Amino acid sequence: MTKRNPNGYGSITKLKGNRLRPFMIRVTVYDANGCGRQKAIGYADSMKNAAILLAGYNNHPFSINREHITFNELYVKWLELKSGSLGKSNLKLMKTAFNWCSPCYGLKYYTIKAYHMQRCIDNCPLSRSTKASIHNLFSHLDKFAYEIDLIDKMYSQLLIINSEATESTRSPFTKEQINTLWAYKDEPGVDSVLVFIYTGLRLNELLSLRSEQINIAEKYIQGGLKTSAGKNRIIPIHPKILPFIRKWLSGKTEYLLTTSKGTRYSPTHYYRSWNRIMKMIGTDKTPHEARHTFETLLDNAGGNRKCIDLLMGHSSRDIGNRVYNHKTIEQLWETILLLNDIDVKHI
């Protein structure tokens, strides 16, 4: 009786037909989400030679067909072998950084050059520390790839972090751009851009917002992240975006804003939709600039500074212990309704 290989070891299959090397050797490879798929790593002329090839792969997984190893596969193997030395906090940063490297996911690692890596850093709209984490991840992967003779040049050494995109360089959406968004409000994803502009929510705040956090009877959102000032804040739902919120709730999903499959958006996935819409209206704004637009419009309309800080989730000496009483909520509604002054022509 033939001894069965252990789970995860791989398999050998004899292919039909008259072939010089009819024995196919396959192993299971996993992506960053832990999803496995069968992958052929080679072919042999006999069962014996196929078994030798499979054993060699299990002893040195990267010694065979190194040119086929993708960014994803290297990342998964690096996590398996090296994550124990990182510490929980650093490991979490590396996993977050990986989410911003989607342009490299399917690329063979040996083909990835400095400009591929730099593009991931430059296209990340978040803080300099997040960009630094992406840089750090590429450095870890390059060192690991170099250790296993997958590459002979570490392009991560050429990367730079451009810190010029500071608070002062952000600009709000113009009224013309907001009008254009309303003109395209029925296009997929445009409703979410308008919700950002009319709520001031951060990207991760909207993507992590659960349906149960919407009080549709009283027409307000209670949520928020990041700071004690931002968490569980109340944001009245402006009448212009109320139909969008109702439509999202009708899907009866756990999260308010979901993909076409009803699953939660990752920031990387959402940015594909966002970038398509920005290209459609001829700009390159970020979700944070939509948040900046919300604050600027309310400030320009003479909104109460305390209420604006409450809506934005900013810390303020005037806010005190943030108890939401009837009067406070009335003032928040008065502030939100100042957005009616936007000259919108396409509703």
**Cα gyration radius (Å):** 26 Å
Largest pleated sheet:
3 strands, antiparallel
Number of helical segments with 4 or more residues? 13
Count of beta strands: 6
Q: State the shape.
A: elongated
Portion of residues within helices: 40-55%
Write up this protein.
The protein is mainly alpha-helical. The protein contains 13 helices and six strands. The strands form two sheets. The chain has a three-stranded antiparallel β-sheet. A three-stranded antiparallel β-sheet has the order 4-5-6. The protein is elongated. Mean pLDDT is 84; it is low at 164-168.
Fold blueprint:
Layout: E1 11-14, E2 23-30, E3 36-44, H1 47-59, H2 71-82, H3 88-99, H4 114-122, H5 128-147, H6 175-183, H7 190-199, H8 203-207, E4 214-215, E5 220-223, E6 233-236, H9 242-250, H10 267-281, H11 287-300, H12 305-312, H13 326-336
Antiparallel strand pairs: 1-2, 2-3, 4-5, 5-6
Quick summary of this structure?
42% of the residues lie in helices and 9% in strands. The chain is mainly α.
